[in-house]
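Probable membrane transporter protein, pasting as requested.
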Amino acid sequence: MRKLLLLALVGLGAQLVDGSLGMAYGVTSTTLLLAIGTSPAAASATVHLAEIGTTLVSGVSHWKFGNVDWKVVLKIGVPGAIGAFAGATFLSNLSTETAAPLMSIILLALGLYVFIRFTTQGLPKDRLGKPLRKRFLAPLGIVAGFVDSTGGGGWGPVGTPAILASGRLEPRKTIGSIDTSEFLVAVAASLGFIVGIGNENINYTWVLALLIGGVIAAPIAAWLVRHIPPRVLGSLVGGLIILTNTRTLLRSDWIDAPDGVRYTFYAVIYVVWAAAIAYSVAQYRKHRAEDEAIIAEAEALVATDDRPDEKTPAPAA
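Structure tokens follow.
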């Protein structure tokens, strides 16, 4: 019972962060399941089955708050589903001994990307509001979907920063569109895992616990996305993913580091993590007015539909 309550709380916390940051439900939940001894394929399958419900509720909530660009959802979601199914069948055919450290490496890489991206970079100043093209979103969706299945998470960590880095979609609509399109990815990945490992290897009680926590948090997160700075949340979540998966790798058979080495790594991570959070808060306060002005300008551009057509290049500045 204690384990189920913990899973529900993790599902709630992970969805609260995912819905307000556009990432981290999968990597956070999968990391916990791996830590308690679940096989990589079963952990990823459990998370993706729970995500069918959480992403559905999250998508509806984001839509209600005006956080969704439906063109982006379709252009990235369908290719993402294809990549997710392929990744699920691939992971299902790997042995646990091979897959566990491999998954931790993928999660660690995603955590580093999230941590660095959101700690060091702000909003773009000249491209926000311009349409996103299919030739960009389709390959991104395939890669993000594949990574999401094989890493137990990654749709948000790959998709959200890439779209934000393009500078064409404001943060709240990036997050809302990524969360909404993730429903298609979760369905496809779940089908892939069921085909690959079968129903008997999935603990549906754990799925239900994660689902309940996520469904409770989804509407709250959709509201919070307008109020919590992504830069700060990115530093928090990225640091947590880095710490947890560094621990998993250092204790794995691949490395099996002695206690002194492990504790040194942990200490360094804690110090860098604390400094990054402090820096993120300071940068948010420093650039708050500028960020709000950029977002307001982009919203006005979209509201008047005064954007260059996707097939017609914008005139040079």
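Note for the archive: Residues 40 and 95 are 9 Å apart (CA to CA).
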